[in-house]
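Q: Can I see a sequence and its folded structure?
A: Here is a first one.
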Amino acid sequence: MINKKAKESKAIVALVAITPLIAIAALVAIAALSFLTSTSWSRAQQPSAPRLQLSDPLPSNLFIELARVTNPTVVNISTSQQPRTPQRDPRMPRDPFFDFFEQFMGPMPQQRRPAQALGSGFIIRKDGLIITNNHVIDRADVIQVQLNDQRGELFEATVVGRDARTDIALIKISVPRDLPVAPLGNSSDLKVGEWVAAFGNPYGHGHTMTKGIISAIGREIDEINLFPFLQTDASINPGNSGGPLVDSRGYVIGVNTAIDARAQGIGFAIPIDHVKAILEPLEKEGRVRRGFLGVQMAPVTDDSAKAYNLPQKEGALVVQVVEDSPAAKAGLEAYDLIIEFGGRAIKTPSDLTRAVAATAAGQRSEVKVIRSGKERTLAVVIGEHPQEAAQAQAAPGSTYEGQKAPFDLGFKVADYSRRLAQDMRLPQLSDPKPVVIEVESGSPAARSGLSVGDVILDVNRTPVRRATDVLRHLKKDQRNGLRVLRGNRVILIFI
């Protein structure tokens, strides 16, 4: 006991005797580490700890430490969507029962309850920026986030950007304090067999952690995702979607997104390298402008190689060139074998799909093809995928000019017009009425059930004919009653 105390005393003396120069160096090192860990997600955060060697034993408290550092960055997400009454085709006959019922009893009450869902996410910036799956928040009117801080507070989140093709979304909450951040790692150098842990909100059991290994890399699941998945046997259940998959050093290497319902222990995550590549456009523009080439492709088979005298079986065989597309303008033709795009080798049609999708619209790239046995290099200017461009143009309210409701009620109205009636398939009105053209997600209007395409008949029992009438008759600090025509039904909504 005396020897032990003596040793401890010597250790304390040694620590006290550290020179000021070493202390300064230690402070500089700590400051540098703090700077690196506080950099934004747009800079790839590189894991700095050395990898464990095969001969190194795993620390006994490995997963305890992972839970300690990761759980504070994980959030539970709950969403609700107000029921939408489908708009009936005015050309279809009405059920006479409803006419009889409403003649004597008034409009039928809306019985459906708001649809609710649960999911997960993780904080990537101390100001409340969160990564989750797009399918977690898709079409939600209200998005609420709960932190892992024992306070039980729910924070309403806004959607910053979303990308259905990769199933990634960015949402943001406002919290009057700095939040803990999950560091983003690298997924390109992952190996099968590495330990991982999945965090999330499975079946509503908040802040749950499961462990397992990377069981496969590069899984393509029936083209449901733009990039191949990571496969893990760490338990992933409904509610885990959007949560982080972390490696043994606490770095996020994937976003939990899907399971194979036919089996146990087969879950999938989006590799974090692909997620990091789209975060900047998601935050700046709210979406990803994905590249478009304009060709239909087929893999090279023994029959096609023999029939078309192809010198190799690797590449993407062009079977159709879309008229007036970037490919057509660049001179690509049917039966061209694409073997390289933008300096990347193309071995399969999927390789070309991913390479083009990862290229920004408007960027010039070189395409190497084999045509009639000879290699040719063509220059192509990549366009924007027409489907995504159309979706962006079709965003509610984006193509119509209207009036924004006051008092932060969260909706816009426009005067009734033939164009609106045609686009939204509205009933023909002899007396024009204002039309709802936009409802903000999570707003009082959304929570009340107001929908795009609703025709407003009166506000607080005062008939309205123009959009400006709606604004004039809305009252502050009170529930506003709106009588609206939805399809061929009249309903009451209170905002």
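Q: Show me another, different protein.
A: A second, unrelated one:
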Amino acid sequence: MYTKSAARNIFYGGSLFFLLIFFGLTAHTHYYAVNVSTNKETLNEAVAHGKKIWEDKACVNCHTILGEGAYFAPELGNVFVRFGGKDDPEGAREAIKDWMKAQPSGVEGRRQMPQFNLSEKELDDLAEFLQWVSTIDTNNWPPNDAG
């Protein structure tokens, strides 16, 4: 049997131990997110403008990006890879732009993406943003190329 003082010491010691673990994991997460996972070297004005378009058009209301957002439409964190961006980056950017221009597709029974009537510059910047997102170290998320 434990005495009152032994139980108290176990409680305080365990609380301190798990509090230190919590702070250590929090510090590691912040370090990893800021210094390792985000590709800051390639972050430029076009990427920032593409992100603003993403936010202004509320794309996250239908799509997920890196697992965050709605699940109505496909994950876009790896859309650049799905369009062949590893082998042909310029071709993938053009394919993404063409896909956006062709919406809504009009295929019966499919969910339809609205036409946002983006300018050529806006389409370029949005494609740059999606290309940049594909370079983020996501620890292999999503688990497959289909998203």
